[in-house]
Design brief:
Blueprint (H helix, E strand, L loop, with lengths): L14 E6 L2 E10 L9 E3 L13 E8 L7 E9 L3 E9 L8 H13 L4 E3 L8
Parallel strand pairs: 6-7
Antiparallel strand pairs: 1-2, 2-3, 2-4, 4-5, 5-6
């Protein structure tokens, strides 16, 4: 399995993302903190909203996959989550997926998990934002 942060345990919950009928994509969301350390991150379903409350602080990792087994990573984003802000710390997009909007999809997925209750920072440098 190839994912962005190798020190954080691999995701075991990879779910389909329905965007376009003929382009199957899959996603995983993991949260690592003092409560959920890197060796045992919280795996979060992509279909839930506002699952983490104001007290949650740590790293939120969103990955997009081309296959349900997590062998081909299309993109990944890491968010540093604080009590008031969520910082887009880093991201990577596979060459074939550049310019397809995957980063904005991952940002929206992260915001959904957090309940849209934190100020998003770190996006000013992004083109087209």
């Amino acid at each position: 399995m190839k994912f962005y942060h190798h020190e954080i345990e691999q995701p075991f919950l990879i779910e389909p993302v329905i965007l376009v009928r003929d382009i199957p994509l899959f996603a995983s969301i993991r949260f690592a903190s003092g409560t959920f350390p890197p060796a045992e991150p919280l795996n979060i379903s992509t279909t839930v909203d506002a699952v983490l409350d104001w007290s949650a602080e740590g790293l939120l990792l969103v990955d997009i996959w081309a296959d349900p087994d997590g062998e081909e990573n299309c993109g990944a984003a890491v968010f540093d989550v604080g009590q008031r802000v969520m910082n887009l710390d880093s991201h990577t997009i596979a060459e074939d997926w550049t310019g397809t909007g995957l980063l904005f999809l991952m940002i929206a997925m992260a915001q959904n998990v957090m309940g849209w209750n934190r100020l998003l920072i770190g996006v000013n440098e992004l083109g087209g934002w």
